[in-house]
Write a structure and sequence with these properties.
Layout lengths: L5 E5 L3 H12 L3 E5 L10 H4 L3 E2 L16 H6 L5 E3 L4 H14 L3 H15 L2 H11 L6 E2 L3 E5 L2 H5 L2 H8 L5 E3 L1 H7 L9 E5 L3 E3 L2 H14 L3 E3 L3 E7 L2 E7 L2 E4 L2 E4 L6 H5 L8 E10 L10 E3 L4 E6 L2 E10 L9 H13 L12 E10 L6 E4 L6 E5 L5 H16 L18
Parallel strand pairs: 1-2, 1-14, 2-10, 4-18, 6-16, 14-21
Antiparallel strand pairs: 3-9, 5-9, 6-8, 7-8, 11-12, 12-13, 15-18, 15-19, 16-17, 17-18, 20-21
Helix pairs in contact: 1-10, 1-13, 6-13
Length: 421
Amino acid sequence: MATGRHVAIIGAGAVGVISAIEALREGHRVTLIDPGEPGGEQAASYGNAGWLSSHSVIPPAEPGVWKKVPGYLIDPLGPLAIRWSYLPKALPWLIKYLLSGWTEARVEKTAFALRDLLKDAPLLHKKLAEEAGVPELIERNGVMHVFPSRGNFDNDLGWRLRKKVGVEWLELNADEMRQREPDLHPRYTFGVVVEEAGRCRNPGAYVAALAQHALASGAKHVRAKATGLKLSGNTLVAVVTETGEIPCDAAVVAAGARSKQLTASVGDPLPLETERGYHVMIENPETGPRSSMMASDAKMVVNWTGKGLRAAGTVEIAGLEAAPNWKRAEILRNHLFSMFPKLPKDIPASRIKTWFGHRPSMPDGRPCIGYARASRDIVYAFGHGHVGLVGSARTGRLVAQLLSGKQPEIPLAPFAPDRFL
């Protein structure tokens, strides 16, 4: 395939804008297609927890998770909730989700694949941030996981598999944790620090800066909603938008949770679903963690951002159109106050911000990265689920390699879009 093609990238989130930067580096002309502002509140990238967790290699579904499904249906405020009204539509995806984690061997396969995708991600992001003129937004200073007991850690399949794929960590007893995190609730008695990981201090601002870097490097931004892809035989002709067609030689589908319609337009009905996520953020909270951390009991990441202390997590299966359940954000807030008892209980409501968005998720926890079946002019790069921000740096490099017909830097068979077709 010739270089210097006109590439239309659908989606200006983290994956899309980094794909644009890397495609420009390969000598292609780039048009970003997105109706919204890169890094704006409408984007999943904006509400990300901010973790650059290169060890996030465990998919959401693990062996035995099927036993918890009744609880997911009964409890609308649990760590994973499924709305009854959406169940019939979500059922095919949920079945694939459960089967993907049915055995430890299947989970292990995903862990090895994700390790390839995420390894060295904090370093890759640091280089991108420096290029974009915002080096202060990426920090490579490790993250902490905290547990009520050592047993909670020892009995976790995820940590056994992380060790197997080469992740290393530092273990902390209660005293060592308290020295590092004096304001953390004393119910947490064991912790691990993954020193290779990092964090983003403001995901929205980071994506916006990357987009500006792409534009300054020659990319164009068309504010339009893409609705389909137009082929002539097996050759891509144009991206179809609500305001007209955009002629191009190649296209990248990086539209997150809204990629499903686009792939279906060229004969790839992929099982993409939205894992709706929430965050709560306290501006000027006065106390909190010294490092970024995840609480095993709350299933929640706590991270300092440039705008305040952010707590993010939980999953809600309810589709793209249903209204938010803001009680889920209240649960995150309550967990945050429980983790850090010294947080003032009378913080004004004006300083507590909430957000809701859509994680694009494939059933097996692995994104789709590869060519469309109908044409090698079309590259898919979506479905990252819980690893969208951290996985975006290498995904952008892989997209550029596919666009140029080069050998991808990691094996892409585990991410092949046709694995569900």
